Amino acid sequence: MNPFKMSKIFVCVLIVCSFSWDIVVGITDSTDLAALRSLKKKWQNTPPNWVKRDPCGRRWEGIYCKGSRVTDIILPGTNLAGPLPEDILSLSELQNLDLSNNRGLLGPLPTNIGTLKNLRSLVLVGCKFSGLIPESIGQLENLTNLFLNSNQFIGPIPHSIGNLSNLMWLDLSDNRLNGTLPVSNKTTPGLDMLLKAHHFHLGQNRFSGEIPLGLFSSKMALVHIIVNDNQLSGTIPDTLGLVNTLEVIRLDRNKLTGIVPDNLNTLTSMTELYLANNNLNGPIPDLTGMNRLSYLDLSNNPFNPPDVPQWFTTLTNLTTLRMKNAGLRGNLPTGLFTLPELQTVVLANNQLNGSVDIPANFSSNLRLIDLRNNSLGDFQGGSFTNSVLLDDNLFCQTPEAARICQTTQPSNLSDFIPQLNCAPLSCFLDSTLGSDCKRPYLGSLVFRSYNFSDLTKILYYTFLTDSLQPLLASFQVPIEKVCLVSSSVDSNGFLVLNISFFPSGDAFFNRTGVSTIGNALNNHLFNSPYGPYYFADLSYSAFPGRSKHIGLIIGTTISSFVLVLLTICAVIYARRQRQIANKTVKSNNPFLLWTQGKVPQIKGARWFSFEDVKQCTDNFSAGSEIGVGGYGMVYKGKLETGQLVAIKRAKQGSMQGADEFKNEIELLSRVHHRNVVNLVGFCYDKGEQMLVYEFIPNGNLREALSGKSGIELNWSRRLMIALGAARGLAYLHELADPPIVHRDIKSDNILLDHHLIAKVGDFGLSKLLTDHRDHITTQVKGTLGYLDPEYYMTQILTEKSDVYSFGVVMLELVTGRIPIQKNRYIVREVRETMKENGNIHSLVDPTIGSVHLIGLEEFVDLAMKCLQDSGEERPSMGDVVKEIEDFIQANNMHVTVDSTTTSATYEGTSGVDLYGHSGFFDVRGNSPLLR
Length: 931
Prior knowledge:
The protein is of the alpha/beta class.
């Protein structure tokens, strides 16, 4: 036989044998193997090592086995996407399934999920699963933990859940569930049968009807009942007082009526009681004997008490008393303020009268007393110097009480500023790592209740470093440190701790590290000292790449002859893989058809070949370089028409930013405005990505403020720049169709032309608000210091996120400083200065001069409106434009742009309208031709 044919046969036999070897040594049960392969086929973004043929023997990431059978799938926070297929039901030995915080997982749960008889823990927190919760879920007789919170489930709670006799945790919060709370009868089970359950978390749904009398009994072991923010009506059943193990009750934000049961005071283990925002009436319940009670909120109920309850003074562990608008009347007992743990008293909008006397031995922890809108005749504060709110009381009408009654607002607890001792700022959100940092995994612990109100006194760092970090280390998570990024109280009254986990050793966490952290928190392996919580993360996109194939390592031990043959096989395999990879790259390439002759019809944007751009930049010579950024080098060029252009050239050898590149082309080609950078064209040729803009000669605002560009920005020029940038943003938000959210407004992205007209640029991160939506949910991107804290914490992007960023830019214009400098955040510094003495002049950029700056106070006030923590409280960009124009007009200034000079003047009435359209307009954008 021909020797060449023999060698080919031998190679083929060797390949077949190598595949057979995997089959021989594989240990995974064939049914389980088929199920996992189906998951791999139907899910996107599965771990790279799921290409191995033996999930148990070669340990697929996130898959854990006992012998040949799969027992655990632990993959939270790994960016999985797709449905939960029926094939998973074949994993009959599966005990723990945690797929939390994979927002790409969607669709209904398998109808027959009850066939997973061995399942003990089902954790699907923070995905996008929808539809009905299957009735068969009640067949999971070994289930102890059921976490389905923060999804999109609809319909009622299945009665069958009452069959889960071993269930300890039931969390269905933050869905769209409706109907009544199910209890058992002669034919069907209900929640009252869950005698081992410690936690009923059912808040933020749409449950209605009465709370069934039979839901509670003395046989239950409940610790938490959290059913806030629903539509429950009727009375609170007195059977609730039979559950003597209860520590937390949240029934607030419902439609409950009637009298609060008298027997609640028998719940002596209670630490937090929330009944606010209902329609409860009758007397205020007597809570004498509830000596562990620390947080009490009965606000906004029409109680009819005979007088202020005296039992207030007996609750020695009380930290927080909130009874705003609760029908209170009479005199406050002096002893209330001496309770040793007391931090906050809010009794506004009641009928309190007489005199309030703060004794000398008041609680050293007391921070806030709010007694606004009562009928108090006198107030004696003694030596108490913290926040007291007394507006709208009788004694405030006397001249001598005016100073005391001036409202002193409590400090803003939701200020957003990273703790800089964690790591350099670039480690948090920048797309590339600095040399001195590692990429953290970011997330939020959201506490549904907590037993304190003075956030400044809580030892967050001790809690994180002494409790959470050692727990994760015990699970072999390579963790260097856990840090607090920020803290706040959200609109639900939940405490939000934004935290960062930093890896040890490598610069990144692998999927196992992130999944273990997520599982410890989502499955409540971590026992928090601050009460019930849930964990929400930010998608971690920094996973390291694929590891080397184990087969190459094994191959080094084979004899030299076999090694040569394997090398031949490897060459063939590599060629095939390269073909597959090339095909994949092409299928994922957003510019597959963007060749000459097939360019999409984009109005106003010209396609340039690589040779065209090379020629107009003198072969990308050093003399043409005008800047460099994270995207790549920027060159100055001159087209054959004589037009000067700026060319952004992506870094060689990198496709990073291809989607941003396409995004910017499509956005800018349809946006035409004097305050938005004009896109001349683009180049996608010979592996190059380049954007060709109009040339902006005076650089960006950051360079001008720093003095780097040599441009002097007096106060009038700064006002002109602010107005121009605001007009550009207002156009994007209000006249572009669909509206555009820029998402990265900062001084670096506001460019100045030869007239110092401000132009908004760099749309690589921008998003369209299509389909008449006013927001989108998207991964957080932007620049730290300018980033909207509400967007950072919720991942909900709106136009108001740009407004926040613009507010930071306004403070830059006033102070000349970068947003975060020497561990000081400019937003916080301005707030503190205005609160202390209102002397904003102490922060003004000294290069402007010491003379009085017309409109400064109004400008700063507007900036602070833009920087409100809640987007709803911020103005629109159109309103911002009008306010700037209003105070310019009020001070007899008129902004014009002189075509022959770079200076701005305040003379005449020639100019541009609200959105930058040229013509004859007054400062408010009104044209005589339109009247």
